[in-house]
Amino acid sequence: MSFDYEIIRSRRKxxxxxxxxxxxxxxxxxxxLAKRDIIKFVEDKRDWVEKHLTEMKRRLKEQPETKTLSRExxxxxAGKALRYxxxxxxEYAEKIGVSYGRVTIRNQKTRWGSxxxxxNLNFNCQLMRLPExxxxxxxxxxxxxxxxxxxxADFWAEVEKYCPDHKALRKRLxxxxxxx
Length: 180
Description:
Layout: E1 6-10, E2 16-19, E3 25-30, H1 35-44, H2 46-62, H3 71-96, E4 103-106, E5 113-115, E6 121-124, H4 132-144, H5 153-162, H6 166-174
């Protein structure tokens, strides 16, 4: 199987492959990484890409047609998120023993949450459509990035301290859709 991919260069330190929900393949690479090294990385990961691309295509076929949320629905979800998420972030940050910057609520198409290197936390307002335990998992996940800014074994060990069933929750979360 042959596939095309887009290369996005940034100030990141590592190279990564992402398969987008629309089945586009994006390779994120450091600014100065040689193109031949990017090509070699993609070739080395060919089996992984093909496996995940096949899985993503299968999911798209099984997925019901996506619903577009109205502006009012998005505003309602954002309001709920502003009332629920910041207090939970404070509570879990205290338990985990980390500090953080701003908490921002957005309507994102591909992410449930993120943590910047400055400690700012972003959460998708559509989390409010999910069960509380999934929302709390995302909050814990992002706060644990304040200790480990990666997905290493140390990071997952940290997540497990505060969310012992994180593997099952993560699997459930991957099955959830983000509406556009």
